[in-house]
Design goal:
Layout (H helix, E strand, L loop, with lengths): L1 H7 L7 H30 L6 H4 L4 H5 L1 H17 L6 H6 L1 H29 L6 H25 L3 H15 L1 H14 L8 H44 L1
């Protein structure tokens, strides 16, 4: 019964017109890491023809071991270009084949982006195996798990569950931006207190990413719970009458 219900129910989304602000917002958010990733790709691939001034913008280690950086940046750019349009109901209904094919690209790039993030860490900072490394593994496994479940659910034709797992995976990806926001807030508040700069800096390095991941997922689940509670209340009232 649940599978049939998921397959036939429309997703808990707003109207088509109301979804475009969401798509634009996702593009703006993902552009923060996406555009620098594109710049890194250009600098690495065309370094022979570029002036030294431009190459100085790169971490020198990128030039020594470009493979993991190119994989991580390349899949990040693909993810940035394809994922936001997956949340457009109009495109999903008018161009279902395009939605399916671009969705495969989005899922594949998300999985490779998460896995290559761990590879890049081992390449650039192999000695850093403390809490920050644990947070990276937690983030990468969460992204891989969510997008794997999204693929599994769409194969079952459980489209509502598929969309929710896609949202969870996207929330995990955006934890990198939330971590930067948390770092900025901590630096502007606690970091300004005497004697706190070192502690705040260490906290930012070790735990900001993990805390941002937890907060993003908790906020998403709380939003869904708030959205579904009125529906459950109305359903229970109908049952009583």
């Amino acid at each position: 019964m649940l599978i049939a219900h998921d397959a036939q129910s429309s997703p808990p989304a707003a109207t088509h017109a109301a979804q475009w602000p969401l798509v634009v917002t996702l593009y703006l958010l993902l552009a923060v890491p996406g555009i620098p990733a594109l710049l890194i790709i250009v600098l690495l691939l065309w370094q022979s023809w570029l002036p030294a001034e431009l190459l100085s913008l790169l971490n020198p280690r990128y030039l020594q071991t470009p493979a993991p950086i190119l994989l991580h940046a390349g899949t990040g750019v693909l993810f940035f270009l394809t994922v936001p349009l997956q949340f457009s109901a109009r495109l999903r209904q008018r161009a279902p084949r395009w939605h399916r094919n671009s969705g495969r690209v989005a899922l594949g790039s998300g999985l490779l982006m998460a896995a290559s993030g761990v590879w890049m860490h081992h390449t650039l900072t192999p000695a850093d195996l403390g809490p920050r490394y644990v947070g990276l593994w937690a983030l990468s496994l969460c992204i891989i798990g969510c997008f794997s479940m999204a693929f599994y659910r769409v194969c079952q034709r459980r489209f509502v569950a598929h969309q929710r797992w896609m949202c969870r995976g996207l929330a995990a990806v955006l934890a990198t931006l939330s971590g930067l926001l948390l770092e900025l807030i901590a630096a502007l508040t606690l970091g300004q207190l005497d004697g706190w700069q070192t502690a705040v800096s260490a906290w930012q390095h070790d735990y900001a990413r993990l805390l941002a991941l937890s907060l993003n997922l908790l906020i998403l689940e709380a939003y869904w719970r708030r959205q579904t509670t009125p529906e459950l209340h109305v359903a229970s009232q109908h049952e009583l009458t």
